[in-house]
Design brief:
Distance between the termini: 33 Å
Order of helices and strands: HHHHHHHHHHH
Structural class: mainly alpha
Shape: globular
Helix content: over 70%
Strand content: under 5%
Oligomer: single chain
């Protein structure tokens, strides 16, 4: 077995192990009554992360080179990158909503910003499709109410004029960038930027991604390398999500096994130190 194939198989198996743990954490906290809005939404986002990770694993080739006779296997790198980028964005949303160690006032401001944007986007989408729903007036009233809560919040004026403008329009669900959140989450910002740009190039069909896809050959051991890299990115942010979810719900820590904890710690370390 070549080094590339062996490394790919190891990464794929580690992803499977961590996903199994993540699913246990999600199931263990499902339906739980919580007092904090942030914990409730963190649970929703964590489930979303689990789903993205499961989809990524299902897209990952078996890694059998050569493949079994007569077997047909799709090596879909671009779709894999799109799903992993969605997982990365979901991680930062979860961190912003619930994990970041901020004051109660800051947490309430983030909730006001988030909930206004949510209802405002719902209203915008209904108008775009020319909805005739009798509930539109009621929804408009709710949007106006949440906008007032946001604008009157003591921390609203701490935003830059540009961000205040975007927030008023409902175009600012998070007032911190992923790079800024990376510093707070102990992730090397340059590592995050490299990961995100790589994944985004496939999402947006940029020239770089097409040049890579043109060289991809299903069944070729060397073509497993970019897929393996993408699965590593998936593992890093999945492990970060597991780390942080266990901070929010410490009673589920004992659901893991030492071997899986070591995998999580390894990839969390990569996020903190790669590129430093």
């Amino acid at each position: 077995m070549s080094t590339v194939v062996e490394e790919y198989s190891n990464v794929r198996e580690e992803l499977r192990e961590v996903l199994s743990l993540a699913a246990k954490l999600s199931i263990a906290t499902s339906g739980r009554t919580v007092s904090e809005w942030s914990h409730e939404y963190a649970s929703y986002v964590f489930t979303k992360i689990c789903c993205h990770g499961t989809s990524a694993l299902s897209l990952a080739p078996t890694g059998l080179v050569p493949t079994q006779p007569g077997a047909t296997e799709l090596w879909d790198l671009s779709s894999l990158c799109a799903i992993v980028r969605a997982l990365v964005d979901a991680y930062y949303a979860m961190y912003y909503i619930a994990v970041d160690n901020v004051s109660h006032e800051e947490r309430s401001f983030r909730e006001a910003l988030w909930t206004f944007q949510a209802e405002n986007k719902r209203l915008e989408l209904l108008r775009l499709i020319k909805s005739k729903s009798p509930e539109l007036g009621k929804l408009q009233g709710e949007v106006d109410r949440r906008k007032d809560v946001l604008i009157q919040h003591p921390l609203f004026t701490s935003l830059s004029p540009e961000k205040q403008k975007k927030a008023r329009k409902g175009d600012l669900p998070l007032h911190l960038t992923n790079s800024e959140l990376s510093v707070r989450a102990d992730i090397q910002p340059d590592y995050y930027r490299a990961v995100y740009r790589y994944l985004s190039s496939y999402v947006h069909t940029y020239p770089f991604s097409l040049s890579q896809l043109a060289q991809l050959r299903a069944g070729n051991p060397d073509s497993l390398l970019p897929i393996s890299i993408t699965l590593r990115y998936c593992l890093v942010f999945l492990c970060l999500a597991v780390r942080d979810f266990r901070i929010l719900f410490p009673d589920v820590v004992n659901l893991s096994r030492p071997q899986v904890d070591q995998i999580v710690e390894k990839w969390v370390y990569v996020a903190a130190n790669m590129g430093s």
